[in-house]
Structure formats: C-alpha cells, structure tokens
C-alpha cells in the first residue's frame, strides 16, 4: 500500500475512534467553554472593563492564550492513548510517515473545528467589533492548523519519553512562542481592519514554519518511534 | 577525530583571542553618538554568538549522525556541544545586557531580539530537561537527537529571522544599520573577523574537553 492510501485509512480510523467516544472533542470543548466563562466572570468583576482602552488588545491576546492551552490539552492525548501493543501493530502494517501524517491531518481537522466553535463562543461572551471578520477568521483557522502541526510532533516526543503533561509544556512552549507571536500580530491587524497586505509577510513566515515543521516531522518520526 | 587531540589550533585560538583583546581595546573605532566607546563591545558580544552557532551546528550534525549510525560517542559529542553552546548563549546574553544598559538605558527593554534570544535559551534548556527525564541510555540518545534536530531550525528562525521583521533596537535589525555599514574604513573588521574564528575555536575546544571527560566516564561505567 502506498503512503497516501495508508494515511487515508489511518485518518479514517482516527476519526472513527473519535466519533465513537467523542472524548477528546467534548473534553476540549468543555475545557474551552469553562475557560471562556471563567475569564468572562473574572474580567467583569471590575466594572467598566469592556469600555476601557486596552479592551481590544486584551480581547485578542486572551483568545490566543485560551486556544494555546486548549491545543496543548487536545494534542497531548494524541499519542498517549496509543498503547504499546497497538503501536507495534501499526509498525507491522504501516509506514511511519503515514502514521505521523495521519495524526497531523487529524489534529489539524480537530483543531480547526474546535477553533470555529471557540471563536463563536468567545464572541458571545466577549463582544468586540472586528474590522475584517473574514480575514480574522482565516487567521484563526491558519493558527489552529499551525498549533496542530507543531504540537503533534512534540506530543510524539513527550509520549516516547513517557512523562506526559510537564514535558509536553516544557518542550512545546519555546517552539510555539514564535507562532503565537506572529498570530497575535496578524490577527491584531485584521481586528483593526488594516490593509490585508500589511500582514502578508507574517503569514508567509507562519506558512514557512508550518512547512518546516511538517517536513521535519516526516523525516524525524521514523527514528523516534522505533524501540 | 584526530583533530581534537592536536595542539596547534588551540594555541592559534589563544593567540588570536589575546590579539583581539589588545587590539579591540586599543585600536581606533568609529565615533558615534550614544555608542561612544561601547562600540568595542561588538568585539566581545558578537563572537560569543558565533561560538554558540558553531557548537550548536556541530551538535546538530552529530545528532543527525547518531540517528544514521547509533554510536554512543556521537550522542556524547552532541550533548557536550549543546552544553557548551548554552554556556556561550548565557555569556552572549549577559554581554548584550550590559551593553544595552549603557546604550538603551535598561538591562532588559522588551526588545524583540532580546525576547527571542531568551525563548531560544528556553528551547535548549528544554533539550537538557528532556535528556534528564529519560533513564534508558539509547532511548535518551535517540529522542534527544530528534528534539535537537527539531530545535535547531527554530532557534535560527528565532534569533536570525523574526527580529529582523519587526522594530528592534538591536544593530542590524528592524532597519537599524549593523556596524558593518557604519564602519567605512573597514577598521573594525580586522579585529572582528579574527575574533569570530578564535572564539569559535575556543568553544570547540571547551566542547572537546567536556567530550573527552564524559567519554572517560562512559568507558569507566561500561561493562566489558
């Protein structure tokens, strides 16, 4: 079987497993909902917050931080749920590239879906006017896909080291900081309704980071998963 | 591997470092407002980063070699080079901060270059933490080699590319001219370029010493 058809089958299996239990999806969705609600209550303790001058900046940054932690929680599960024997079974039937590729695509789809729901929920609680909604929405989608590509590889490393949550955070945050900086900057441009061309170079760097990370994952994963 | 046991390049490194110390403090430098004599810091600050890049590059090369051919020596070289690189990283940060205090007014002024250097520092600290979290030697070597290869391009993006895209106070970034452009008569180059080479050699030297110590320990602990 070629890598592409293997990837398709593995992707189908990922989605099917998730569809049966809906554990990762519902868990992270609930996580986002509670975080947004906690932030809503906490910020509204001080009256006049929504009219204050810094509100749009906080609005933008807070959204990305919520998405960051949601992504860490969602992605950390992607390799830990695989038992050792199941990994051995994959090893005998599929190429490692197909496995990491299917995980990346599945995580990207999951994150994209979650980010759409998250931005909707966020907008209900925290009202704000966005200058260029379509562009902002596109950046949110691109951001969630970038989170997925970076965190998938890191989750694989952390799962192999056998020391879940802490290691995941320690390893991923230095890698994700440039991504989130670029996202916050370009989404701020979209929120202020500036010319779209102003953030093209940022998005270009973001796309380049994605390509590098996916390429590195494809090359490095085969070495990582052999025991 | 014979190279690391030879003497000539170590003598060369020491001689050139002595030359850059003396020439860097005595030779003429361009007179700039604000900078004044602090411009001489370029002879000591920038070579630290060159030494760091050199040892990190060697480290990532040996990580790649380890994945292709799992010799424990390769892993030892990779980790000792990374350790040395972290040392030069801290020295580079500290010399930069001291310079920033005199020219920008604060040790840490939330400059993009400083921030992304700090993030890249965390990246390599994470590499060392990852190593400590795994007990089994071969597994540790393989996983940390993978992370090292993964971290290296991110470090390059953080230090070399991202700060150039924004407004940074750091020379050579965000529209600020680097010293090369101010230095019309190429006075500074005759000190700066030898300093790059010399400090890189010193970095390699420290790394080889550390490697030789850990190789001895490894052999001592090995079961015949």
UniProtKB/TrEMBL annotation, chain A:
<dbReference type="GO" id="GO:0017004">
    <property type="term" value="P:cytochrome complex assembly"/>
</dbReference>
<keyword id="KW-0812">Transmembrane</keyword>
<protein>
    <submittedName>
        <fullName>Heme exporter protein CcmB</fullName>
    </submittedName>
</protein>
<comment type="similarity">
    <text>Belongs to the CcmB/CycW/HelB family.</text>
</comment>
<feature type="transmembrane region" description="Helical">
    <location>
        <begin position="23"/>
        <end position="45"/>
    </location>
</feature>
<dbReference type="GO" id="GO:1903607">
    <property type="term" value="P:cytochrome c biosynthetic process"/>
</dbReference>
<dbReference type="InterPro" id="IPR003544">
    <property type="entry name" value="Cyt_c_biogenesis_CcmB"/>
</dbReference>
<dbReference type="Pfam" id="PF03379">
    <property type="entry name" value="CcmB"/>
</dbReference>
<keyword id="KW-0472">Membrane</keyword>
<dbReference type="GO" id="GO:0015232">
    <property type="term" value="F:heme transmembrane transporter activity"/>
</dbReference>
<feature type="transmembrane region" description="Helical">
    <location>
        <begin position="205"/>
        <end position="225"/>
    </location>
</feature>
<dbReference type="GO" id="GO:0005886">
    <property type="term" value="C:plasma membrane"/>
</dbReference>
<feature type="transmembrane region" description="Helical">
    <location>
        <begin position="134"/>
        <end position="159"/>
    </location>
</feature>
<feature type="transmembrane region" description="Helical">
    <location>
        <begin position="111"/>
        <end position="127"/>
    </location>
</feature>
<keyword id="KW-0201">Cytochrome c-type biogenesis</keyword>
<keyword id="KW-0813">Transport</keyword>
<feature type="transmembrane region" description="Helical">
    <location>
        <begin position="57"/>
        <end position="76"/>
    </location>
</feature>
<feature type="transmembrane region" description="Helical">
    <location>
        <begin position="165"/>
        <end position="184"/>
    </location>
</feature>
<keyword id="KW-1133">Transmembrane helix</keyword>
């Amino acid at each position: 079987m070629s890598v592409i058809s293997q990837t398709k089958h593995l992707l189908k299996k990922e989605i099917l497993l998730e569809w049966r239990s809906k554990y990762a999806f519902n868990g992270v969705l609930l996580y986002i909902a509670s975080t947004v609600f906690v932030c809503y209550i906490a910020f509204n303790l001080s009256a006049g917050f929504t009219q204050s001058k810094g509100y749009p900046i906080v609005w933008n940054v807070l959204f990305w931080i919520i998405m960051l932690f949601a992504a860490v929680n969602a992605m950390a599960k992607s390799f830990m749920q695989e038992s050792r024997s199941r990994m051995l079974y994959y090893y005998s039937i599929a190429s490692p590239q197909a496995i990491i590729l299917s995980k990346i695509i599945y995580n990207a789809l999951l994150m994209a879906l979650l980010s759409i729901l998250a931005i909707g929920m966020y907008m209900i609680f925290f009202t704000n006017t966005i200058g260029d909604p379509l562009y902002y929405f596109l950046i949110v989608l691109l951001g969630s896909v970038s989170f997925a590509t970076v965190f998938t590889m890191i989750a694989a490393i952390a799962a192999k080291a056998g020391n879940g949550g802490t290691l995941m955070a320690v390893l991923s945050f230095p890698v994700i900081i440039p991504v989130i900086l670029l996202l916050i900057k370009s989404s701020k441009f979209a929120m202020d309704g500036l010319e779209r061309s102003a953030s093209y170079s940022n998005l270009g760097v973001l796309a380049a980071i994605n390509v590098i990370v996916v390429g590195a994952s494809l090359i490095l994963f085969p070495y990582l998963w052999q025991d | 591997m014979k190279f690391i046991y030879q003497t000539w390049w170590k003598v060369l490194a020491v001689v050139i470092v002595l030359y850059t110390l003396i020439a860097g403090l005595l030779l003429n430098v361009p007179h700039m407002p604000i900078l004044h004599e602090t411009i001489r810091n370029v002879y000591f600050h920038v070579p630290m980063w060159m030494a760091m890049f050199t040892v990190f590059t060697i480290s990532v090369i040996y990580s790649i070699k380890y994945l292709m051919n799992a010799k424990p020596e390769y892993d030892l070289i990779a980790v000792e080079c990374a350790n040395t690189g972290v040392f030069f990283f801290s020295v580079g940060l500290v010399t930069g901060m001291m310079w920033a205090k005199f020219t920008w007014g604060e040790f840490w002024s939330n400059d993009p270059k400083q921030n992304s250097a700090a993030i890249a520092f965390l990246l390599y600290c994470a590499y060392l933490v990852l190593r400590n979290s795994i007990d089994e030697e071969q597994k540790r070597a393989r996983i940390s080699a993978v992370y090292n290869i993964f971290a290296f391009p991110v470090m390059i993006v953080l230090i070399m590319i991202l700060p150039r895209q924004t407004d940074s106070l750091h020379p050579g970034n965000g529209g600020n001219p680097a010293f090369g452009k101010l230095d019309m008569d190429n006075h500074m180059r005759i000190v700066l370029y030898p300093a790059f080479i010399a400090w890189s050699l010193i970095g390699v030297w420290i790394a080889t010493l550390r490697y030789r110590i850990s190789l001895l320990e490894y052999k001592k602990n090995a079961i015949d």
